[in-house]
Design a protein that fits this description.
- This protein folds into three domains: 1-66; 69-198, Trna Endonuclease, Chain: A, domain 1 (3-Layer(aba) Sandwich), CATH 3.40.1350.10; 202-250, no CATH class.
- The chain is 45% helix and 16% strand.
- The protein contains eight helices and eight strands, in the order H-H-H-H-E-E-E-H-E-H-E-H-H-E-E-E.
- The chain has helices at 2-12, 17-28, 30-65, 74-86, 129-141, 157-163, 173-185, 188-194, and strands at residues 91-94, 106-110, 113-120, 146-151, 168-171, 222-226, 233-237, 246-248.
- The strands form two sheets. A five-stranded mixed sheet has the order 1-2-3-4-5, sandwiched between helices.
Length: 250
């Protein structure tokens, strides 16, 4: 509408007879064709976006019903992770790790926060501490609020130790499978509500004894966390933010 009618209107307001004639000729000639072309391109972009969104949703639902992370290629794994965040209420932008941003595959935005994600589709390797350090540096460079590293396998002990106490969330393949199931089983409004608060990162405990308490919601592991507002310690589910189960510290 702006191209088809806005530009001619602008010329007609100038008061000059030449400008009015020129604006009218534009409206009846090339502008009309260009306006329709612009509209067509917009519709094509919207259709492609809807198609990709449907692909991600179908992939997520199929993996939730029958988890087979090792069978996914790197692009499918990235789309699965993107959909997992999308269903938690994040605005997700797929940047692609091979681009100028290095290891950043996804950019997340919600509640005024920006978080970056790297997806590691390594089937036979543990993610080393060097990868975590690289993403920590990218987080500071881009002034992001937090960083996620999601992999199919596991992280090395050095990587876990480096991430402890920092705004770094490491998600293993086993944890991702559990979290995908939690999000899939939740209703849409409940998922968005569970993700309205930005994650409060804290150093998780290295391990738990067999007799340690478990999450009252998903029966997962609990880690020690601290409320940044009150300073009080509590036990929170390690699957946060997908699961928000908590217990008071014994």
């Amino acid at each position: 509408m702006a191209i088809r009618y806005g530009i001619p209107w602008y010329f007609e307001q100038s008061g000059s007879a030449f400008s009015k004639t020129f604006g009218k000729s534009l409206a009846e000639g090339p502008l009309a064709m260009f306006a329709w072309l612009a509209l067509l391109l917009c519709w094509l972009g919207a259709g492609l976006s809807a198609f990709k969104r449907q692909q991600r949703a179908s992939l997520f639902d199929s993996q939730a019903n029958n988890l087979q992370l090792a069978a996914l290629d790197w692009r499918q794994f990235e789309r699965l992770v993107a959909e997992w965040f999308h269903r938690q209420g994040y605005q997700v932008t797929e940047t692609g790790g091979g681009g100028p941003d290095g290891g950043i595959d996804l950019t997340l935005r919600k509640n005024g926060r920006t978080e970056i994600v790297q997806c590691k589709q390594w089937r036979r390797r543990q993610v080393p501490v060097a990868t975590v350090r690289e993403m920590w540096g990218l987080m500071q460079h881009h002034r992001a609020d937090a960083v996620w590293i999601v992999c199919i396998g596991e992280f090395t002990p050095d990587a876990a130790n480096f991430a402890a106490g920092k705004a770094i969330r490491l998600v293993t393949g086993k944890e991702l499978g559990q979290l995908v199931q939690v999000v899939k089983e939740a209703t849409g409004p409940a998922v968005v509500s569970a993700a309205t608060s930005p994650p409060q990162f804290a150093a998780p405990t290295p391990s738990q004894d067999a007799g340690s308490p478990v999450c009252p919601k998903c029966s997962g592991k609990l880690v020690e966390r601290r409320n940044r507002r009150t300073g009080e310690d509590f036990l929170g589910c390690e699957s946060y933010p997908a699961c928000r189960g908590t217990l008071a510290t014994p």
